[in-house]
Amino acid sequence: MIRSRSRSARDSRRGVRMFSAVVALTLSAGVLAACSSDESDSAGPSSSGTSAPTDAFPITVEHEFGSTTIESEPKRVVSVGYTEQDILLQLGVQPVAVTEWYGEQPDATWPWAHDLLGDDKPEVLSVSDGFEYEKIAGLNPDLIIGTNAGMTQDDYAKLEQIAPTVGSVKGAASYFSNWQAQTRLIADAVGRSAAGEQAVTEVEDAYAKARADHPDFEGKTSTFTQGEPYDGSLYTYPAGLNTDFFTELGFVMKPGLEKFVPEPDSQALISAENTDLIDADVALFATETQEGFDALMKFGTVANLNAVKAKRAVFTDATLSGAIYFLTPLSQMYVIEKLVPLLDAAVKGESKQSFPS
């Protein structure tokens, strides 16, 4: 499964999503009215978090689709994007619903964040057929967070009918918005701007320390590729598209991949005859299974890349791969802990050229 969050990945389900949007128009006033506040108080997981808001309500936030005003502290927050549950949980907000992206993790929440759920069991939403408007409405949310949801103006209008909704960061790519700005936007919306700023600072400080501790990373070229071929191509990330974890450590993304990007804000598609383009001082492959690793090594000239032969290629397990893709403060702290030692070994030519057991 390709972990792309670009337009090319979601276009394949655009027709289904639009059908779902049409269905959502038929939501009757009776369905919405049935979701009374009395019912919501006794349904779903607790909304009490580990920290209280520090900002005064009402709060107005700006996002891709305009501005949203949150009149009072939200108690029933629904996350309709791929990764926002991480940020909400870190801020001390227990969402009543989260969205499954991939991995089938318990409660659609990965290990670096799951403990923050405590005993809560949020509803798990799916976006395989578009937003589940009726299910979302049935949860009676008082805030919908969709900063990493790839929502359209039409999607936003329908969600806004259910509850105040926060879209992606203004001017950002649908699925690759600046993680700092996304964290701050969510923190502002739930009245925890100070906690959001602290989360950002902690990650930036951790990257700075790791970079200072590894001066041999500085200036080394790098590439980042998804862990197995899909439809005859490897999906490789050009500079600036989910590659900050490399550049924050001092690496330089290998140039030239941009011309293989089929559309803005998407990965470069590298065919079997062009796999030499992903060779670098350090080549990172986000492998997830032994089968995927085997397929990768049989694709084009991957097994003969200088990085592979010189033990300077890095292969991840499924959890580290997920952490790299998630690009949230919590997942990045996991990346720094788990990936930096692997990069250190690769720079020294001591990386294990096998799937992590």
Q: What is the overall number of helices?
A: 15
CATH superfamily label of the largest domain = Nitrogenase molybdenum iron protein domain
Give me the CATH architecture of the largest domain, please. 3-Layer(aba) Sandwich
| Integer tally of domains | 2
Structural class: alpha/beta
Low-confidence stretches: 5-50
Total beta strands: 13
CATH class of the largest domain: Alpha Beta
What series of H and E elements makes up the topology? HHHHEEEHEHEHEHEHHEEHEEEHHEHH
Q: Describe the biggest sheet? A: 4 strands, parallel
Distance between the termini: 21 Å
Mean pLDDT: 87
Helical content band: 25-40%
The coarse silhouette is globular
Question: What fraction of residues sit in β-strands?
Answer: 5-15%
Instruction: Return the CATH topology of the largest domain.
Output: Rossmann fold
What is the C-alpha radius of gyration, as a whole number of Å?
Answer: 21 Å
Sheet with most strands: strand arrangement: 10-8-12-13
Domain Fe/B12 periplasmic-binding: 76-347
Biased composition (Low complexity): 42-54
InterPro entries: ABC_transptr_periplasmic_BD, Bact_iron-sidero_bind
Region (Disordered): 36-56
Provide structural commentary.
- Its main location: other.
- Belongs to the bacterial solute-binding protein 8 family.
- It is found in: Cell envelope.
- By secondary structure, the chain is α/β, with parallel strands linked by helices.
- The protein has two domains: 7-191, Rossmann fold (3-Layer(aba) Sandwich); 214-347, 3-Layer(aba) Sandwich (Rossmann fold).
- The protein is built from 15 helices and 13 strands.
- The protein has helices at residues 7-11, 14-25, 29-34, 37-42, 84-90, 111-114, 133-138, 153-162, 179-189, 193-213, 244-247, 290-297, 306-309, 318-326, 329-347; strands at 59-63, 66-70, 77-79, 97-100, 123-126, 143-145, 165-166, 221-226, 234-236, 252-253, 268-270, 282-286, 313-315.
- The strands form five sheets. A four-stranded parallel β-sheet has the order 10-8-12-13. Strands 3-6-7 form a three-stranded parallel β-sheet.
- Helix 9 runs antiparallel to helix 10, helix 10 runs parallel beside helix 15 and helix 14 packs across helix 15 (329-347).
- The two termini are 21 Å apart.
